[in-house]
Amino acid sequence: GAVVSQHPSRVICKSGTSVKIECRSLDFQATTMFWYRQFPKQSLMLMATSNEGSKATYEQGVEKDKFLINHASLTLSTLTVTSAHPEDSSFYICSANPAYNEQFFGPGTRLTVL
Amino acid sequence: QKEVEQNSGPLSVPEGAIASLNCTYSDRGSQSFFWYRQYSGKSPELIMFIYSNGDKEDGRFTAQLNKASQYVSLLIRDSQPSDSATYLCAVNAGANDYKLSFGAGTTVTVRA
What is the distance between the terminal CA atoms of chain B, rounded to a whole angstrom? Predict the structure, then answer.
């Protein structure tokens, strides 16, 4: 299967700071990547679709000015949580599709905002 | 809004038994169907996908799709303690629409 990596795997930050999370497709190119958030004991919630070379598409209710997405190349998308607050603490997961239909997930980034 | 519903569980089965997971979806135009396994604290891992009506087998896993009934299921045969996880059903529209709609997941516990 295709490999998607994320960095960092875990981050702790103070309230008000910004945090950047990187998502990379290691063995394929991805024109589209997806960003999800998962709170404890809940299912995945799609936040946005990251499109290489163009603006991200955000799901309803997701603040685009708070969650900045940059898809700089065919193998890298970044999610920046700006002015993070404790309620932003969550498990953030990216995913991508190789040329075929199946979607593969990165290992996730656990964000804790103090 | 595409809706995907799963048995809430938890589902507890003895080791060696068959675990049966069910999923229904609301969008009749859905084309592709996926089962992911998620261990606690980890990200989802793709275990099965199915596009056509009928059964698809992969090792101990069998996915069943019935588009007329808008129903997809996953059978885990000879369940092992390592199968204990949350299983997520996901659906997309296919035809280059890769966005997935997920069910809430069913937690399976296999008793040794």
Answer: 40
Residue B82 CB contacts under 8 Å (≥ 6 apart), including other chains:
B110
Q: Are B47 and B75 in contact (CB under 8 A)?
A: no
* Mean pLDDT along residues A68-81: 94
Taking the C-alpha atoms of residue A51 and residue A31, their distance in angstroms, rounded to an integer, is: 6
Interface residues on B facing A, Cβ-Cβ cutoff 8 A: 32, 34, 36, 42-46, 49, 51, 88, 90, 92, 94, 98-100, 102-105
In the numeric block, the tokens 């981050």 are attached to A11
d(CA B89, CA B86): 10
- Amino acid at position B11, single letter: L
C-alpha closest to that of B111 among B38, B17, B39, B37: B17
Q: Residue A34 and residue A48: Cα distance in Å, rounded?
A: 6
Binary contact (A101, B98; C-beta < 8 A) = yes
Q: CB–CB of A44 and B104 under 8 A? A: no
- pLDDT tens sequence across A55-71: 999 999 999 999 999 99
Q: Which residues contact A62 (CB under 8 A, 6 or more apart)?
A: A47, A48
